[in-house]
């Protein structure tokens, strides 16, 4: 599977309160949550994103609280995958559970800038950007099975035969 999209670049230690600030958690509507995606950093982010874009970030992306609204807001904003130097564990798992693809790529910040076109080859575990290829870590095992079906709820329904 190949994912190709425009990069939205962020730094290190992007916490869930900056991804979706607390005052905007009063809804369960994923599209309303998406309208406040990255609102703690860039209030216009959700207006800039196009379907299939990719977030690239530094170390410890998704740190802070365990709110699952953070990856939900990212996914429903149109982002297909998040590539980071590292993830907070709970954010990583929440992303898998809702069907947002988390990819770990050491050194990505040194070769990418905002607006670049990035290609992730999940099968080869490689990222291509600006004529460079970098190895990456993609979800495997049960996490990959969950992602392939679109998230944990869909995976569970499929396993039950619904």
From TrEMBL:
Family: Belongs to the LeuD family. LeuD type 2 subfamily.
SUPFAM superfamilies named among the record's database cross-references: LeuD/IlvD-like
Domain named Aconitase A/isopropylmalate dehydratase small subunit swivel: residues: 45-104
Full protein name: Methanogen homoaconitase small subunit
Enzyme class of the recorded protein, top EC level: lyase
Keyword match Lyase: yes
EC annotation from Swiss-Prot or TrEMBL: 4.2.1.114
Xref: PANTHER family: 3-ISOPROPYLMALATE DEHYDRATASE SMALL SUBUNIT 1 (PTHR43345:SF2), 3-ISOPROPYLMALATE DEHYDRATASE SMALL SUBUNIT 2-RELATED-RELATED (PTHR43345)
Organism: Methanofervidicoccus abyssi
InterPro entries: Aconitase/3IPM_dehydase_swvl, AconitaseA/IPMdHydase_ssu_swvl, IPMI_Swivel, LeuD, LeuD_type2/HacB/DmdB
Sequence motif YLRT, location on chain: 24-27
